[in-house]
Design goal:
The chain is of the alpha+beta class. Among the domains are: 165 residues, no CATH class; 119 residues, Arc Repressor Mutant, subunit A (Orthogonal Bundle). It contains 6 helices and 22 strands. The strands form 8 sheets. A 5-stranded antiparallel β-sheet has the order 3-6-7-15-10, with no helix packed on it.
Length: 413
């Protein structure tokens, strides 16, 4: 089998075949953090990238690092414990060494105090996959130190971290120069949970101390510990109601405020969970995934079903709707919107409808819209009236038939 004209078994300089490298690249492009390393990619279940509310950073992540060491503040063990909400005696368990000297540290970005750099942090094997997957969850407090690692590929990779090999999980191998490279080993670091996962076992051809459940890796990376939610406010699911001019609101570009899985997904946002609320601070129904308290403009809506709230417990001032036969005089048209000249639409003209039934017209920024679903309600009493007329006519016709039958029965031959 050839791959793009190259025999699949051709060996690459890093020791992998073209087929193996292609398999790894596909896995990485699909972002399968829980990949079964023993299964070919074509046999694995597809995972939808999961971006939840708390993955959206409220505060900006800059595109530059401090110019020198003075831009960072080194935290004490006590400050590290407070930051991660762990016991101070658990901080020592994060430590690695070089020549028996401590190499672990946590530093705070002074200009952006919610961003921290973790250096040479010891990782622990994950119980159900101890030779392939590692994280930093403290044993007593059960806090995940690497929650919300800033993605390695964000801002052209300036936030990229580094994974190192160790000797028995403590001393950095080759004095901290035994770095894990993608050319040696296919791996990924989950930005949300800080899980380091290898797609293949490390081997002595890569290092005298290959990564396994004993020689656990160490990591240097950047983490975000600011506010979460959206660029308009600090809450995880609430967009505050903004009135009038919002040009003064400061926020990072959307590409920097939402974790991107890869370049192919840069225009997509995925939410799992909810509810997501716009225009209010309390969900009226926790069973809803999305709630808008106000008007929303949607260019094109595709739905399996649609329902309008109609419970009598929500209503007051209930009156019988009078019949308005004038709506039968409204014209229906075919047309296209100026922004979509190639798409033919059908409907009515809002200004014409407003003259007849103004209460089904809404105006936003001077632009009028029609509540088409209300037409059925308006037509219902008309249809009922017509049905009564039809029944009356049928009764009259029946009476006339009886009358004529009687006349014919008594008529002389």
């Amino acid at each position: 089998m050839d791959i793009m004209g190259v025999p699949s078994q051709t060996m690459l300089p890093d020791g992998y075949s073209v087929l193996e490298a292609s398999d790894y690249l596909i896995k990485k492009s699909l972002w399968r953090t829980n990949t079964n390393v023993g299964a070919p990619v074509y046999k694995e279940a597809v995972q939808t990238p999961k971006i939840v509310q708390k993955q959206i950073a409220t505060q900006p992540i800059p595109d530059t690092l401090p110019a020198n060491a003075s831009g960072w503040k080194t935290l004490s063990f006590s400050e590290i414990a407070t930051l991660f909400q762990i016991r101070i005696d658990e901080v020592a368990g994060l430590n690695t060494t070089v020549n028996k000297q401590s190499a672990f540290s946590v530093k705070q970005y002074i200009a952006y105090p919610y961003i921290y750099k973790i250096t040479n942090c010891r990782m622990k094997p994950i119980a159900n996959n101890p030779n392939y997957a590692f994280n930093v969850v403290t044993p007593i407090s059960k806090q995940n130190i690497l929650n919300y690692v800033i993605p390695f590929n964000l801002n052209n990779g300036i936030w990229a971290g580094t994974v190192y090999r160790t000797i028995s999980g403590e001393e950095l191998s080759i004095r901290g120069n035994d770095i894990v490279f993608n050319s040696q080993l296919p791996f990924i670091v989950d930005s949300d949970s800080g899980i380091f996962t290898m797609y293949d076992p490390d081997s002595p051809r890569n290092s005298p101390h290959p990564i396994n459940s004993i020689n656990t890796p160490a990591i240097t990376c950047y983490i975000y510990r600011g506010e979460y939610g959206n660029f308009l406010g600090p809450y995880s699911t609430i967009l505050p109601q903004i009135l009038n001019d919002i040009s003064g609101i400061k926020h990072a570009p959307i590409a920097d405020t939402i974790w991107q899985r890869n370049a192919d997904l840069s225009n997509n946002i995925y939410f799992r969970g909810g509810p997501i609320i716009v225009g209010n601070n309390v969900a009226s129904d926790q069973a809803l995934s999305f709630e808008v308290n106000g008007s929303a403009l949607i260019q094109r809506l595709v739905t399996r079903s649609m329902a309008t709230l109609s419970d009598i417990r929500l209503k007051e001032n209930i009156r019988v709707l009078p019949i308005n036969s004038d709506i039968l005089n409204l014209q229906c048209y075919t047309y296209n919107y100026k922004t979509t000249p190639d798409i033919e639409e059908i409907g009515v003209i809002a200004q014409e409808v407003e003259k007849v039934v103004p209460h089904i017209i809404q105006t936003n920024d001077g632009i009028k819209s029609v509540q088409y679903d209300r037409f059925g309600v308006m037509l219902l009493p008309i249809i009922k009236e017509q049905q009564q007329r039809i029944e009356t006519l049928e009764n009259e016709m029946s009476s006339l038939k009886c009358f004529f039958h009687k006349l014919l029965a008594h008529a002389p031959l």
